[in-house]
Amino acid sequence: MTTIALFGNPNTGKTTLFNRLTDSYAYMGNWSGVTVEKKVGAIKNSQLAVVDLPGVYSLNPLTKDEAVATNFLLNEPQDIILNVANAAQLKRNLLLSIELLEFGKPTIIALNMIDSLRKLGISYNLDVLRHAFGCNLVATNARGNKGVQDLKQQFLQAEPDLTPNTFKLEYSSAIQTAIKQAVRGLQRNYNLGEQFASWLAIQFMNANKAVITYAKENNLTPLLNQQPYYEAQHFADKIYQARLEFIEATLKEARQQAQNPRITDITAKIDRVVTNPVLGLPIFAGIFFLMFKLTFDWVGTPLSNILDQFISGPLSSSANQLLTTLGALPFLHSLIVDGIIAGVGGVLVFMPQIFMLFACISILEDSGYMARAALVMDKLMSLVGLNGKAFIPLIIGFGCNVPGIMAARTIEQPKERLITTLISPYMSCSARLPIYSLFVAAFFSKHQAAIVLSLYFLGIAVALVLAKIYQSVFHSEETSVFMIELPEYHMPQANIILQGTWDKGKGFIHKAGTVIFGGTVMIWLLSYLGPSGVATNVGQSFSALIGRSLLPLFHPIGITSWEAISAILTGVLAKEVVGSTLMVLYHTAGRSMLVAALAHLFTPLSAYAFLVFILLYIPCFATIAIIKAETGTWKWAAYSVVVSLLVAYGLAFFIYQGGLLIGLR
Amino acid sequence: MALFVNLVITAAIVATAGWQIVKVLRKSKQGKCAACDYKCAAKKMMVDAKRRPN
Hints:
heterodimer; A: mainly alpha; Rossmann fold; Helix Hairpins; six-stranded mixed beta sheet; two-stranded antiparallel sheet; 64% helix; elongated; B: 54 residues; mainly alpha; 2 helices; iron (chain A); ion transport (chain A); transport (chain A); FeoB_GTPase (chain A)
């Protein structure tokens, strides 16, 4: 198997190209930091494997995820390097290309987003670039699937005959001499190949942290002994300067007569408004409001109602008839109809809303707005000692907290990373959506989108306040540098939106068949059985006993029904189970009936306090486990559980009691 | 006979549900999300993630 390693700056369309080459679909976003770990795919009908690595600006890693790319070169086999460069920003992109070419493996540079370059009225003579860089160059537009077949052909042709590239940059004589000396030592004492030894030496002189670690691990004395000399001579600066001069000279030579630009810079015009210091935040809030309008008022809920009518109507009654005909005894009958259909079906009716929300997030991602959202939030985040970089994991957490916490790896400062990990669970993930939907339909039918928006922003506000507290407790002095590519705005493409929506949403369907099903049957069992065997009514069941025992604790935050408490407890398994538990315990066949039942047990004020509690209380098991995995200790996972419970209770108490004091109900 | 069949089906459903919960808890301990059985970037991240020094 021949391995092609995909390298490139963030947001150069690497993942899109990877998907086109391998005919697979990997998560894409029109913003940086989407590929945090490497992805592997294969080119059909060939022996070619493609590895997509996280985007990096140079091989000198700043963050954990950037180290993945350099460590891949150091420790894993690769036969061909495919360097994806943004054609419209070649000066910066080619800095990485030089580092890759110096590695010596057969390399192809894909000048991607070539359409953006043409729109700006610029073109380059590819032959001049090929000659200067001693490797093959292909112009591609991965998004429009142009040039990808040519690229595939290059690989298929190159497969049997891999010729190393011939690139060699002339550094100053002092550096050249130092490289030669180091290479001699490395070849003689460590049996390294000349090309790899030369690359190691250059990277070491360039103060590449991953390479320095590698040299220490392997005790490469020809490099380690010379480290003070390299630093004293400022080799790193000189290497950078030599590379930059070479790129500028080459691009000047390759640049062809400018044509008339076909577009004025629409991106810049839009950005003047959406990233405006004053308008940026209201626009961000407005976009979210629109998203919830679509999810709850305009599209999601009407579709959800149709599904609800089907599940609580024809499906339930057919199942009833069938079970009666087959002679099912009452307990089996109850398990299937009151348990599985009511519980699992009761959660599945929220599918249209969840898919609608994911479709909106996919549109925002593909259009290029998400990067602007991070930029807009940078100012707000800096007030609490974080920056826009920390907002990316938080916004991913709106889908699911687990990948959100994993995305915190892109933050280089350990303390900032820990703070981001600890505040991520306060982001309202999509699993909470069914509960919001139930309660806003029951108590706030005219302001559904506004109430949900308030919960999302409350989650952000709590996260920011806690971040500020952690910042002062941890005394974090070093701060991360926030750099984000602002990609051009694209008209979102239907296939990418559909694929993105399905990819995010199918997890919800999968959960219905696994954890929601499991949780529902267990809660049915607890509601069917009691201390004296089969409970004659649900009020004498185990679930009622457990719920009632905790009632005094929840009374001050307005929760007076044991059913709601049982639902809170099962929600730790997965937040969707809260909804299915309520369905089972209230013995309702459909969403509309549950909405009516809830109206008798809560007031609008206690309902809002309940929603706030659900938003902020203990994260689900998967989130707790990922906090442990990312922080490396159960201590922070346990801390997160305790603090979230206290914060949820405190805020729900404040809202409920405060509301009562000012005469709300 | 009818009672026996009903009991067997009920036991099978309850056992399956219990097994699903056990599976979810086991996966959670490994840092995997219950929803992440599909080939998304998040799953790749979690499956391939090796602890790297800070």
